[in-house]
Design goal:
The protein has one domain. Helices cover about 25% and strands about 40% of the residues. A 9-stranded antiparallel beta sheet has the order 2-5-6-7-1-8-11-10-9, with helices on one face.
Length: about 250
C-alpha cells in the first residue's frame, strides 16, 4: 500500500513510452490524440527538442541539455499535468500537487489507450516510470547519513565535507530486461541559504517487446511497487519526519 505523506518531496512523476511503429510516423497523430483528450488537456504547446541529463560541476550537479526530437505538449488548465508527443514517443508528466498513485496510474493507462488506438504501434521499445524527489535543508553542513541510507561512501582519511556529489546505481531485474536506476545528487538550490538534493528513481523496461501492449497496467503497477520500496529503503525516519513537519 502506498505510504501517504503530508508534505512529500516529490517534484515530478512521469511515465515515458518509446514505441516500435507499424508504419512511419503520421503527422496527423498528435491532432487526433488532442481531439480525444482536449477536455482534460486544453492547452497546447510546441517544445523544442531537448533532453536533460545530470552533470556534476564545481558548483553542484547541473542539468545538461541535449538535442532531442521536437515535442507537442497538451496541458491541463493549471499546467500541472501534461501529455507529450513526439514520433513514436508518449510521455505523461505529473507535477505538484501529486494526486496519489491510483489517480496517476489511471491517467497513464487512459492516455496510453488513446495513443494505442490512434497510432497503432507494433510494440514497445522501452518504458520508464520515474519519480524525482527534491530535498531542501537549511543546514550547509549536512550529514547525509542522518537522513539517507543511500549516500556516497567516504573513507575515514578523506574530508567529510562535500561541495557537490552524484551517486548513481543501476540494479538489474528480470534477467536484465528491466533496470532500476537510483541517483542521489546535490543540485543548485533555489535559495542560496538552502542545501538541495535530488533523489531520482527510474524503473525501466529496456528489452524491446519484452512487455506486450496488453500488459502495460500490470507492468506500471510492478514498477511503482519497486520504486516505492526503493525510496523507503533509501531514506530513514529522520527524513520521513521532514515530510510530516513540512521541512527543516
Amino acid at each position: 500500500m502506498e505510504r501517504i505523506y503530508k508534505n512529500p518531496p516529490l517534484a515530478e512523476a512521469l511515465c515515458e513510452f518509446q514505441f516500435i511503429p507499424n508504419v512511419p510516423w503520421d503527422l496527423t497523430i498528435p491532432g487526433l490524440i488532442y481531439g480525444r483528450i482536449k477536455d482534460r488537456f486544453p492547452r497546447r504547446k510546441q517544445q523544442a527538442g531537448l533532453g536533460i541529463q545530470l552533470r556534476p560541476t564545481e558548483k553542484g550537479v547541473e542539468h545538461k541539455i541535449e538535442p532531442a526530437p521536437p515535442r507537442v505538449q497538451f496541458l491541463n488548465q493549471g499546467e500541472t499535468v501534461l501529455v507529450q508527443l513526439a514520433p513514436d514517443l508518449l510521455v505523461v508528466n505529473q507535477l505538484k500537487p501529486y494526486p496519489g498513485w491510483l489517480k496517476f496510474k489511471s491517467l497513464i493507462i487512459d492516455t496510453f489507450n488513446v495513443y494505442r488506438e490512434i497510432a497503432n504501434p507494433k510494440g514497445i521499445k522501452r518504458i520508464g516510470l520515474r519519480y524525482i524527489n527534491i530535498f531542501e535543508f537549511t543546514s550547509k553542513n549536512l550529514r547525509l547519513d542522518e537522513y539517507f541510507n543511500y549516500y556516497p561512501f567516504i573513507p575515514e582519511t578523506m574530508p567529510k565535507a562535500l561541495s557537490s556529489f552524484l551517486v548513481r546505481s543501476e540494479f538489474p531485474y528480470s534477467d536484465e530486461k528491466e533496470v532500476l536506476i537510483l541517483q542521489l545528487a546535490s543540485i543548485i538550490p533555489r535559495d542560496p541559504d538552502l542545501s538541495s538534493l535530488v533523489l531520482d528513481l527510474d524503473y525501466a523496461m529496456i528489452a524491446p517487446e519484452y512487455i506486450s501492449l496488453d500488459d502495460i497496467e500490470e507492468w506500471v503497477e510492478k514498477a511503482h511497487d519497486e520504486i516505492e520500496r526503493t525510496f523507503e529503503t533509501a531514506i530513514n525516519d529522520k527524513a520521513r519526519d521532514l515530510f510530516m513537519d513540512g521541512g527543516q
